[in-house]
Design brief:
Blueprint lengths: L4 E9 L2 E8 L7 E11 L1 H9 L9 E2 L3 E9 L11 E5 L12 E5 L3 E3 L6 H4 L3 H14 L20 E4 L4 H12 L5 E5 L4 H7 L3 E4 L5 H9 L3 E6 L4 H8 L2 E10 L2 E2 L12 E2 L14 E5 L8 H17 L7 E5 L4 H13 L6 E6 L5
Parallel strand pairs: 9-10, 9-12, 10-11, 12-13, 13-16, 17-18
Antiparallel strand pairs: 1-2, 1-4, 3-5, 3-7, 3-18, 5-6, 6-8, 14-15
Helix pairs in contact: 1-9, 3-4, 3-8
InterPro entries: ADH-like_C, ADH-like_N, ER, GroES-like_sf, NAD(P)-bd_dom_sf, Trans-enoyl_RdTase-like
Keywords: Signal
Pfam families: ADH_N, ADH_zinc_N
Length: 363
């Protein structure tokens, strides 16, 4: 056990989260130590604090699934990174890799090198959303993994693909990735204030998902029923809407957990499911319904070896993918910043932007 400690923000019991001191570890095989500049708060962080989800009684658990910062130390057999490199990363390895702490130990395969002039604030918005979108489209939906820049049209280039809830942070990356991969008919649903931005990202059609004739407008835009759909909200109501337009032999990917009702934020008395109950499934048996758990993306060997180490750095170096817009919390103590960020996320106050928390200064 290390005698050195550093500050972290963790849940220490159901309903309790606070800044605590935790051991400062050294990087092992295929790991790097990162001085964390920024991290994020996402709905899953609030579920861990408020309901103990994913905690399994093992407290404390540090929060923050995204990391941006500077490499401080490099473990054995690490290729392509060295001390001083700017990076962003996704936490899949428990508390030691989480972002809401001053020093994180990151597995090389989840870590992407940033261009020297890239904003660490912006970089903190990327890992979970980018990975979720890529994994959903090019694994869970069964679309072939693309190469960038795309030189040939993919097999389903002219097939309409629905991104439901495209104004969400993961939806924004899904739209960009589909366009970059050569798909020409991206149908997006979002609230009206996201429409112009989604069109700027390349969405072919954008439909207001609150409109009373939603199904008719989607079918008109698509020219028929939808073969591939990604539900970025994954609530009972959104799945029902997609079921009204999905092809009988279509594939629908839903980001887990699925929430009761129509909101992607689950309130205290609302149910959430990691497996959709049969009596809540609005689709016929012929539709392939896939639940997406982004933390499992590394089970795909190609994605583990390429997505963060190679593909994302290439896209960032060429400036062909846009980070999410930011709502930054950088005032007061780490405790104050994290608590405020948790509150705005659990209250559903953020739309189409990423809640980013400043952890340390890397100057």
């Amino acid at each position: 056990m290390s005698s050195k400690t550093h500050l972290a923000f963790a849940t220490t019991a159901v309903g309790v989260a606070s800044a605590i001191q935790v051991p400062t570890l050294s990087p092992g095989l295929d790991e790097v130590m990162v001085k964390v500049a920024y991290s994020t708060v996402i709905p899953l962080d609030t579920y861990m604090v408020d309901y103990g989800r994913l905690v399994q009684g093992e407290y404390p658990v540090i929060l923050g699934f995204n990391v941006s910062g500077v490499v401080e130390a490099v473990g054995a057999d690490v290729d392509g990174l060295q001390t001083g490199d700017k990076v962003c990363a996704f936490s899949t390895a428990g508390s030691k890799a989480k972002g809401l702490q001053e020093h994180a130990i990151i597995d090389r395969s989840t870590c992407a090198k940033l261009p020297d002039d890239y904003s660490l604030e912006a970089a903190a918005t990327i890992p979970d959303n980018f990975i979720t979108a890529f994994y959903t489209l090019f694994d869970c939906l069964g679309l072939p993994p693309p190469t960038f820049p795309s030189s040939t049209s993919p097999p389903h280039a002219d097939t309409p693909i629905l991104v439901y809830g495209a104004g969400t942070t993961s939806g924004q990356y899904a739209v960009q990735l589909l366009v970059l991969a050569g798909y020409k008919r991206v149908v997006a649903t979002a609230s009206p204030h996201h429409h112009s931005y989604l069109k700027s990202l390349g969405a072919t059609y954008v439909v207001d998902y609150s409109t009373i004739d939603l199904a008719e407008k989607i079918l008109l835009a698509a020219g028929g029923r939808i073969q591939f759909a990604m539900d970025c909200i994954s609530a009972e109501g959104t799945l029902k809407s997609i079921s009204n337009v999905a092809s009988p032999d279509g594939v629908v990917a839903m980001l887990l957990p699925v929430t009761e009702g129509s909101s992607h934020i689950a309130g205290k008395d609302m149910q959430m499911w990691m497996e959709l109950p049969v009596d809540r499934n609005p689709f016929p048996d012929s539709v392939k319904l896939v639940g997406v758990r982004a933390l499992k993306y590394q089970q795909n060997e190609y994605l583990r070896n390429n997505l963060m180490p190679k593909i994302l750095p290439q896209l960032l170096e060429h400036g062909i993918i846009q980070p999410n817009r930011i709502r930054l919390f950088d005032q007061g103590s780490l405790q104050d910043r994290c608590q405020e960020a948790l509150n705005v996320v659990r209250n559903g106050e953020v739309k189409g932007e990423k809640v980013v928390v400043k952890v340390t200064s890397t100057d």
